[in-house]
Amino acid sequence: METVVADVIAIIRKAAEKAINAVNTSMVEAYWLTGKRIAEEELQGQERAEYGKAIIKKLSDALTAKYGNCYSQTALYGFRKFYATYPEEKILYTVCTKLSWSHNRLIMRVENPKQEILSPRSIRSG
């Protein structure tokens, strides 16, 4: 009986890990797409800097009301930076989604984030 219990525990643990990884991949993709949408909207504005601030503020207010503090202005600026750092969709799907959002944020702080994220060390530690 102990073997059955151990096997089932391992099955459940593996399923939970897969679920966490799937959620992480989806959220990293959502943050990149959000950053892309913000960047696209900003390009349509007349006075870019002020318009960008207004977009971020309004979007943050709406998302915070619906989903909580996860969508602060700081977070939205981070999503926009994430998209600006990796505008090529192929990088998003081949590398960025293999890393957690926390790892992606750390990598964006280095001098050359695109080079860092494409390094084998980053991909292995994902």
UniProtKB/TrEMBL annotation:
Xref: Pfam families: DUF1016_N
Signal peptide per UniProt: none
YhcG N-terminal domain span: 8-115
Domain of life of the source: Bacteria
InterPro entries in the record: PD-DEXK-like_domain, YhcG_N
Bilayer-crossing regions: none
Name of the protein in its database record: YhcG N-terminal domain-containing protein
